[in-house]
UniProtKB/TrEMBL annotation:
It comes from Trichonephila inaurata madagascariensis. One of its GO terms (cellular component) is neuron projection membrane. This is RNA-directed DNA polymerase from mobile element jockey. The keyword Secreted does not apply. Residues 2-105 form the Ig-like domain. It comes from the Eukaryota. PROSITE patterns: IG_LIKE. SMART domains: IG, IGc2, IGv. One of its GO terms (biological process) is synapse organization.
């Protein structure tokens, strides 16, 4: 049967505007499918972000990175926003389904955590 126990559990921290990689390690997937979900803030509902290597959510900032034959499935969030913060779920559609939660916090960009100065200032 598949296992998720090799998945890292530490929370992920990102700065708004950066790309975030949320990884899930699935051993022995067989013919099952990996589904990424996120918990809708303020509810117990979840929304499906991807199934297998296909993005389900309309938001093109989300994508699924996976190399054939590898055990790591990565949900990539480009240009992360503060409201992307929350709980993400890596799920295998076994019966009963297996899930592992990853916590993401996206913080506002400040001068102290910026990697570089923004280039969009016009000095007029």
């Amino acid at each position: 049967a598949p296992t998720l126990e090799a998945t890292p559990l530490e929370p992920l921290l990102a700065v708004a505007g950066d790309s975030v990689l949320i990884d899930c390690v699935v051993k022995n997937l067989q013919n099952y499918t990996i589904i990424w979900r996120r918990v809708v803030p303020g509810s117990n509902k979840t929304e499906i972000l991807s199934a297998g290597e296909v993005r389900i959510i309309p938001d093109p900032r989300f994508s699924l990175l996976h190399q054939k034959g590898h055990e790591t499935w990565v949900l990539q969030v480009q240009k992360a926003q503060v409201n992307d913060s929350g709980r993400y779920i890596c799920e295998v559609n076994t019966s009963p389904r297996m899930q592992i939660y990853r916590l993401l916090s996206v913080v506002e960009r400040t001068p102290s955590n910026s990697k570089a100065f923004p280039v969009d200032h016009n000095y007029t």
